[in-house]
Specification:
By secondary structure, the chain is an all-alpha fold. 83% of the residues lie in helices and 0% in strands. It is built from two helices and no strands. The longest helix is centred in the C-terminal third of the chain and has 35 residues.
């Protein structure tokens, strides 16, 4: 399997436009971007949260 070509990307965009309509696509893309940013922020915060919980357990 290779990467997506121009024709495949156009077909996917046409199907998305047919399913969701032109007015809903920007909102869907915006919410997807926010979700990805929150996920990345959660991954960055995770190691510090693990260290904090292990430190509080050893102090008790």
């Amino acid at each position: 399997m290779g990467s997506l070509g121009t024709a495949e990307i156009i077909i996917i965009l046409v199907v998305l436009l047919a399913l969701f309509g032109g007015k809903k696509i920007p909102g869907i893309a915006r919410s997807l971007g926010r979700s990805l940013n929150e996920f990345k922020a959660g991954l960055r915060d995770e190691p510090s949260a693990i260290n904090e919980s292990s430190n509080s357990e050893t102090e008790d």
